[in-house]
Amino acid sequence: MASAKKHSSQSPAFRIINGVKWAYLTRGHGRAVLCQEKAYTLFKDLERKARVDYHCLYLHKQVVGLSANIGTVNNLVSKFTSLKRKLKLDGGELHYEMRGGDVLLTGLTVDWDYRRNNKKARGLYTVINDGVEYPTESADSITTEHVAINGLVKDLRHAAWMMPAFVNAGYPSKELKKKAEYTLFYNDYNGFLDADYKCIQDSTGLRGGTQAARQLAASIEMAAREKREVNWTVHERGCAIFKQALRLLSPQHDYAKQTVFYANDVVNTKLVDQHRARVGMKLSSTGFISNDWSVHQGLVAGNWITDPIMLWQNGNKGGAIEQGTKALALAGGGIAFPGMWGAPAWAMGLVALLGANLFASYSNQGVIRNTGDALNHYLFKRGRA
Fold this sequence. Notes:
Blueprint: E1 14-17, E2 20-26, E3 33-36, H1 37-49, H2 54-64, E4 78-79, E5 84-89, E6 92-99, E7 102-110, H3 114-117, E8 123-128, E9 136-138, E10 146-149, H4 156-170, E11 181-186, H5 191-204, H6 211-225, E12 230-235, H7 238-248, E13 258-263, H8 269-279, E14 282-289, H9 295-300, H10 303-313, H11 317-331, H12 338-341, H13 343-358, H14 360-363, H15 371-380
């Protein structure tokens, strides 16, 4: 049933199964993955392009990943039968089946023009910080010092416009100058329900996380391979995508040249940061910023409790005490008593609190350090500064 040739660059090792020749894609680690000989050239083209293009690396990893955890939630599998399965990807599709403990790749489709034909698809974009239009262009890899990951936004242009303020909040000594380029990892969302489901999926690792997290993992790994110094600014629901991407990273690479700053995280920042520390990335000197008035960021995500802990562990004990006191006042209902802070402060505080939670999606989009920032953001739309 099975005969084989020695592997060489010209002729891959193969097996004959029911009279059909199948070439090995992986063997020796987990289940062997084989494809029909005519698809082998396509796979080798994908493997070659994966060295310079994060999207091809993402697709390549999904093919090779069939060798492990078959039949579990980790492969985002859509089952036709107990043996035949399909995996739909961004710019590709895999059809495969189980046979004698191995994986037979019965169909491999790669759309080489996927990003060219989908100019607002999720993934990497180079952005010019021009202060007006913020022109974007799809990127094959990270080539800039700063990389931003957006949370819930209206579209690509909105994300490109919004993120420079967070970059500068996280890295004040490496400010993103006007006309300078930065890289955006763009996440597309179809409203609140879609955004919240994807956030839960990535935060928990459900079904292996989203396709966005897998593409982000490929781009992070490629930057590590190229030994690039990268400053990540991770915003809002993007923190969940980043969390899952960190789970997927290959441990064989060095991520010590990459630094992270969290902005308005709507999942628990400390839990995300544990994965950052595990892979060896650095935390920016600023660490994180959050809207203290936001119940979503503070109470629901648990950051009112864990943010002071993070500050204390990072050596900012004064900031930890201040943050903890503020969190206790907010969580304990101190705002509700004008006599505690004085009537004028209470009035402004109430506006800030209501604004942060009646307009939660909007409150997550501003750099808000204090009540004045909050009022500027909600009343005068000055939250980016």
